[in-house]
Design a protein that fits this description.
six-stranded antiparallel sheet, three-stranded mixed sheet
Length: 208
Amino acid sequence: MSRDEALFERAEKGTACARIYGWDGPWVSLGRFQSPERALAAECTVPWVVRPTGGKAVLHGHDVTLGLAVPLEDLGVRDSRSLGPVYRAVVSRIVQAMQECGVPAALGEDTSFVASRGHTSDCFAHVAPNDVVDKRTGQKVCGCALRLGSKAVLVQASIPAARPLVDPAMVFRRPAPAAWVDMEPGMFAEALRQGFLDRPSRLPDSVQ
């Protein structure tokens, strides 16, 4: 999380940067406004960490995780202080990169699939209009959380790419059904880099 925070600090100074990474076993990342007592099941033994972004809790270890920080002036958004346009400007490029990797991703608002499993702390159990879903099934295929600064935005995203390493029911009281997509991290990194290079942004050739 400190490395993603460092990306954000670099972007605030004008440098767009990203990294794609995995986890050493199962972990949970909590949104910066969540508490483990409320977000996790009482019997949860999976270690947890708090993200610098908001949003709901995410179970990691089986996912492709993205930390992406972009100066607001690079996004070409007219109202860069409004979270909605900034979110769409960034997430649309993540969706495009996933599509380049063969994942039929789309924003929930562009499909008929928007639903919730009721009150839950599991990011993947809730599908809002701005969530990234499989356009065929409505299954959420990417969890995204943002932090908007004065000059940059930090995006932290999780794409399930294999079976969970632990049963989500051991982590969350109301978990989403386990589901994942077939996506190669290196291909995704290159597709994401090209997606930013092809649009008005200065994301360098340093997607790691």
